[in-house]
Specification:
5 helices; Ferric Hydroxamate Uptake Protein, Chain A, domain 1; mainly beta; Immunoglobulin-like
C-alpha cells in the first residue's frame, strides 16, 4: 500500500509545469538547528511567497525565469536575504538558518499563534513551549500536564490530580504521542502526581482538544502530540538541575551530519536515605523511586533526507522487605512506559515530501512476591501491552492555496497477562489485534485570504470482527476582516482500545488496557465545534468556542468496580454526551503577560436505565495566570520573574448516603456469646448525585537567574496553595468524634488532599 502511494505521488508530480522555476528548502534556528515554523519567505517585487509549515519546510513555485531576492523573516530573528537565479523547469533548494535577536521568546510565540490564525484551519488547538511550561507554578517541578490543565475545556479531579479530562472525555480517550511513540499511561510517576515528560527535553507540545484532523485517529476525545528537541547541531551544551525530589540532566550537541540529545531524570530521596543508613548504621530505607529518559539522534545524509531515532523509557519502582534478614519476604512492583521510533523524512520532489515512521510502544506492570525461606510461595504477575506500528505520511503542495495530505498506518497490538507460581506459568491466551488506517485530507484556500475549507476522511479496518469503519472530518474558516475569524469543525472518531479500571477514580497509579473484542462494538464519538477568534493588535487575542460531543458504545465499568474491573465481558455498554462553552483571553505587555480561561460544561453518561454525571463533570472552571518581570525598584527580588495562578472550580459529583440504620446480630465472641452486637449500614443515593463544595487555590512561582562558578543558571521557588485553602476532595463517615471517642451517630468528615501551603524549590545550571 505504501509503495502504491509513492507511485501515485510521483505520477502527480510529473504534471508540474516546466515553464517556471521554483525554490524550496527548510528553515532552522542557527544556534541549535531547531526547525522554525511559519517563517515568512517572500520573493521581493512579486506577489509570490510562502510560509514554512510544521516541519520548517517551504516551497514557492511558478516563478518566472530571472534573478530575484528572497527574504526570510521571523519576529525574534534576524532577517536573511538571498539572491537566486531561477531557471525554467528547475527547482533551487535553499536551506536557511536564522539567528535569534534579543527580542523576548514570547514574541516568537505570538508570531506563531498569529500565523496559525491567518493560515491554519484549526479549532481547539493549544500549543505549549518549554518556557511556558516552566513558568506555571507546580508542586515539586514543572510539569506538562499541570500546565495544560490551565487551559479551557480541561478539568482536574483535585489539587494533585495529573490526568487530562478534556471536554467531558475520560483520560483513556486521549491519544498521547512522544515523537510518534504511544504513551499509554502518561501520568504514572509518584502514584499519579508526575507526568512522564521532562520539559527540558521538549521542543513543543500540541493538544487538540477536539476536532483533530484526519492524520490523527483511534481516540474519542483529544490528541497530545509532543515533539522532543532536535539536539543542538552547532555546539555541545547541557543543563543539570535539582528540585525538591528529583535531579535531571540534558546533553546535546553535533555529530557528523547530524545531532544528538540525551536527557534523564530520577528521584534521589531513596539514595539519600540509603547513604544515611550506611553512614550512621541505621536500619532505614525508602523503597520507592522513579526515573525516565529520552535519547535522540538525527542524521542528515543529504539535503533531501533526514533520519531520526528516538528512544524513551521510564518506570516507577516500589520494593520493600519485611521480617528478619534470614527469614524475610520481599514485595516488588514496577510499572512504566518505554518505546523506540525511527523516522525517515524525504523530499521526493519540491511539491511532495513524506515521513516514514516505525514505532514500538510498551507499557508494563510487574509484581513479584518472594519468600526466601519457602520458594513454593513465590508469585510473579506480569501485564504488558505492546504496540508495533508502521506509518507513512505525505504532503503534496499543489500550489500556494491547495495542500493535500495522505497516509497509511498499520498497528499490531499484543496484550499479555500471566502469573507464575511453582506449578508453572498461567494466564489467559495472548490477545492480538490489528488495525489498519488510511487517510486523505485536502486544504483549500477558496477565497484568499477569506475562506478556507479542509476536508478529510480516515478509513479503518479492525480485524476483531472484521470491521470496516469510515470517519469523515470537516473544517471551515471564514475571516471577516484582518483580525476576526469564524471557525467550524465536525468529525467522527472511533476507538479500539479501552481501559478496564474506572477513569473516575480519585487516585490511580496506572491503567489496565484491553483491545476491543468481537463481542463489543468500538466506541464512537461525534464532534461539532464552532468558534470565534479575535485579535486585538499583535499582543492580545480572544477565543470563544462552543462544542457538542455525542458518544455511542461506551464501555463503562460497574459502579462497584470503581478502582478495578473484572474482565472485558463485565463492562456495561452506555451512551453519553458532553457540551459546553470555552473562553480564552491572552494579553502580553512589555514585561507582563497573562491569560484568563473559563469553561462552562456538562457531561452526562447513560448506562442501562441510569443517567448520571461522571465524577469529572465540573460545571464552572476559571483559571487566571499572570506573569511579570520584577522591576528594579523592588529589592532582592528585582530582575526575577514572578508568575501567579489562581483557579476556581465548582464542585464535582460524588456518591453519598441518603439513610443509615443499625444492624443487630448475635455475637460470636466467646467472652460474651449471648450478647447482641450492632453495626451501621448505609443506603446509597443515586450515582454521583451530590456535589462537593466549590474549590479554589492560589499558586506562585518565582524564578531568577544566577551565576554558579561562572556558569549561567537560575533558581526557582514554588508555593502551592498559598492561602491554605482546604478543598474537599472526598467525604468519609467516621465512627469516632474529634477526640477519638466512639460516636453514637456516624460523623461525615471532608478530607482535603493539600490543606496547607507546600513550598518547593530547585536550581538549574547550563554549561
Amino acid at each position: 500500500m505504501v509503495k502504491n502511494l509513492l507511485v501515485f505521488g510521483f505520477l502527480i508530480c510529473l504534471l508540474y509545469s516546466s515553464e517556471f522555476g521554483g525554490v524550496n528548502g527548510f528553515v532552522n534556528d542557527a544556534t541549535n538547528g531547531e526547525k522554525l515554523v511559519y517563517v515568512n519567505v517572500v520573493i521581493e517585487n512579486t506577489q509570490l511567497g510562502a510560509s514554512t509549515d510544521e516541519k520548517g519546510y517551504y516551497f514557492i513555485q511558478k516563478i518566472p525565469e530571472g534573478t530575484y531576492q528572497i527574504t526570510f523573516s521571523y519576529i525574534g530573528y534576524e532577517t536573511v536575504q538571498k539572491i537566486v537565479n531561477i531557471l525554467p523547469g528547475k527547482t533551487l533548494t535553499i536551506n536557511v538558518e536564522l539567528n535569534p535577536t534579543p527580542i523576548e521568546l514570547e514574541k516568537v510565540v505570538v508570531t506563531a499563534d498569529r500565523e496559525r490564525f491567518e493560515k491554519g484551519v484549526e479549532v481547539s488547538h493549544i500549543t505549549f513551549t518549554t518556557q511556558e511550561i516552566k513558568s506555571v507554578p507546580t508542586l515539586f517541578e514543572a510539569d506538562l500536564i499541570k500546565s495544560l490543565q490551565l487551559m479551557p475545556g480541561i478539568v482536574s479531579m483535585h489539587d494533585l490530580s495529573n490526568k487530562l479530562y478534556v471536554r467531558g472525555g475520560s483520560p483513556d480517550e486521549n491519544l498521547v504521542l512522544l515523537d510518534g511513540i504511544i504513551i499509554y499511561n502518561p501520568t504514572t510517576h509518584l502514584f499519579g502526581l508526575f507526568s512522564t515528560f521532562n520539559p527540558d527535553a521538549m521542543s513543543m507540545a500540541e493538544l487538540y482538544a477536539g476536532g483533530f484532523p484526519a492524520k490523527y485517529g483511534d481516540r474519542l476525545s483529544a490528541v497530545l502530540d509532543i515533539t522532543t528537541k532536535e539536539g543542538n547541531s552547532k555546539r555541545y551544551q547541557g543543563e543539570v538541575g535539582a528540585g525538591l525530589i528529583t535531579t535531571k540532566f540534558l546533553i546535546e550537541g553535533p555529530i557528523p551530519k547530524g545531532s544528538l540529545l540525551f536527557s534523564g531524570r530520577r528521584t534521589y530521596f531513596d539514595a539519600l536515605v540509603w547513604s544515611y543508613s550506611h553512614i550512621f548504621n541505621k536500619d532505614v530505607s525508602l523503597p520507592y523511586y522513579f526515573y525516565d529518559g529520552v535519547a535522540k539522534i538525527n542524521y542528515n545524509p543529504s539535503l533531501d533526507n533526514r533520519f531520526t531515532f528516538t528512544g524513551f523509557g521510564g518506570a516507577d519502582i516500589l520494593s520493600f522487605t519485611e521480617g528478619l534478614s534470614t527469614s524475610s519476604e520481599k514485595i516488588s512492583l514496577s510499572w512504566g512506559n518505554r518505546g523506540i521510533s525511527g523516522r525517515w523524512r524525504r523530499v521526493f520532489n519540491p511539491q511532495i515530501y513524506g515521513e516514514m515512521l516505525g514505532v514500538c510502544s510498551n507499557f508494563f506492570t510487574h509484581f513479584w512476591y518472594e519468600n526466601f525461606t519457602d520458594t513454593t510461595q513465590n508469585i510473579k504477575l506480569i501485564e504488558e501491552i505492546t504496540s508495533i506500528s508502521a506509518k507513512a505520511d505525505f504532503t503534496y503542495l499543489l500550489n500556494e492555496n491547495h495542500t493535500t495530505e495522505f497516509g497509511i498506518q498499520e498497528e499490531n497490538l499484543k496484550m499479555e497477562q500471566s502469573w507464575e507460581v511453582v506449578e508453572g506459568l498461567f494466564g489467559p491466551p495472548l490477545q492480538y489485534s490489528n488495525l489498519i488506517g488510511i487517510y486523505l485530507q485536502d486544504k483549500w484556500v477558496l477565497m484568499p485570504p477569506i475562506f478556507y475549507l479542509q476536508l478529510g476522511i480516515r478509513g479503518l479496518y479492525y480485524n476483531q470482527g472484521n470491521r470496516l469503519i469510515y470517519n469523515p472530518r470537516l473544517g471551515l474558516k471564514y475571516r471577516y476582516g484582518e483580525n476576526l475569524a469564524f471557525n467550524f469543525s465536525a468529525g467522527k472518531y472511533s476507538q479500539f482500545l479501552i481501559t478496564l479500571n474506572s477513569q473516575e477514580s480519585y487516585f490511580s497509579i496506572f491503567d489496565f488496557w484491553r483491545p476491543i473484542d468481537k463481542t463489543h462494538s468500538p466506541p464512537v464519538s461525534y464532534h461539532l465545534i464552532g468558534g470565534i477568534e479575535r485579535w486585538f493588535g499583535e499582543d492580545a487575542n480572544f477565543t470563544f468556542e462552543t462544542y457538542y460531543k455525542k458518544y455511542y458504545n461506551l464501555l463503562i465499568p460497574k459502579e462497584e468496580d470503581i478502582f478495578f474491573s473484572t474482565p472485558t465481558e463485565s463492562l456495561k455498554v452506555g451512551t453519553g454526551y458532553a457540551t459546553g462553552i470555552d473562553l480564552f483571553f491572552k494579553k502580553r505587555f512589555k514585561d507582563i503577560s497573562g491569560w484568563i480561561s473559563y469553561s462552562f460544561a456538562w457531561t452526562r453518561r447513560n448506562v442501562d436505565d441510569e443517567s448520571y454525571y461522571p465524577r469529572y463533570d465540573r460545571r464552572h472552571n476559571i483559571n487566571i495566570t499572570l506573569g511579570s518581570i520584577i522591576p528594579n525598584l523592588v529589592p532582592i527580588l528585582k530582575g526575577g520573574r514572578i508568575d501567579l495562578h489562581w483557579y476556581l472550580g465548582s464542585g464535582l459529583p460524588y456518591a453519598d448516603m441518603i439513610a443509615r440504620y443499625q444492624y443487630y446480630f448475635f455475637s460470636d465472641n466467646q467472652e460474651t456469646p449471648y450478647e447482641w452486637e450492632r453495626e451501621w449500614h448505609y443506603l446509597s443515593g443515586p450515582r454521583d448525585f451530590y456535589r462537593l463544595p466549590v474549590s479554589h487555590c492560589l499558586d506562585i512561582h518565582y524564578e531568577k537567574g544566577m551565576k554558579f562558578f561562572g556558569l549561567a543558571g537560575n533558581w526557582y521557588l514554588d508555593i502551592i496553595n498559598l492561602y491554605a485553602r482546604k478543598n474537599i476532595a472526598f467525604y468519609i463517615y467516621e465512627l469516632y468524634d474529634e477526640n477519638g471517642d466512639p460516636s453514637e451517630i456516624p460523623r461525615k468528615v471532608g478530607y482535603s488532599i493539600l490543606p496547607i501551603p507546600v513550598p518547593s524549590f530547585g536550581i538549574n545550571i547550563k554549561f
